[in-house]
Amino acid sequence: MSELGDVDLDYMRRVIARACAAVEEGNRPFAAVLVAADGVVLAESCDMSNATGDPLNHGEINVLRTAHVNCGLDRMADATLYVNSEPCSMCAGAILRYGLARVIYGTPAAVSRPYISKNPRGLSFPSAPIFALAGQALQVFPGVLLEEARRPFELYAGKAPS
Ligand SMILES: [Zn+2]
User: Fold this and answer.
1) C-beta pairs of 52-60 under 8 Å, 24+ apart in sequence
2) Annotated active-site positions, please?
3) How far is the CA of 85 from the centre of ligand 1 (A)?
4) pLDDT band for position 160 (50/70/90)?
5) According to the model, what pLDDT value does residue 70 have?
6) Is the pLDDT of residue 162 over 60?
7) How far is the CA of 47 from the centre of ligand 1 (A)?
8) How far does the centroid of ligand 1 lie from the alpha carbon of residue 89, in Å?
9) How far is the CA of 91 from the centre of ligand 1 (A)?
10) Statement: residue 161 has pLDDT above 60
11) Rounded to two decimals, what is the model's pTM?
């Protein structure tokens, strides 16, 4: 499938809402949901690194590990990962390792980073060079529902101490 459908937009709105809920729960403004080609939701999570203190607890990693335990790699091979923002390079590498079919995300890192870091030269982990390694095996759709996808970051910035 090379075009996005209404179902894709529905899952994007679901993951944006989950990221907003994550902020309300005291977590960072990131969430992910993994959906098999037959429409079954394999896993759904948010960034838990604030809650656990583990910087690897990104929403994508949580989702991939949960789906792997519950379903196995074969079930994940045709799946789509929806994320409200561009995955970091760690998560992009994990996405390649798990062999997903598609990644669909909202805000590019350049849009979301200023909301979560006051340091303009803060660490940046772009995913594009990692995703490029997959070639045609992975379809990547950036910038989907871009304006709606800003909402979790606006919420997060509004809660941050000034
Ligand atoms: Zn990540």
Assistant:
1) 56/90, 58/30, 58/32, 58/87, 58/88, 58/90, 58/91, 59/19, 59/22, 59/30, 59/31, 59/32, 59/83, 60/32, 60/87, 60/91, 60/94, 60/95
2) 60
3) 10
4) low
5) 97
6) no
7) 9
8) 7
9) 4
10) no
11) 0.93
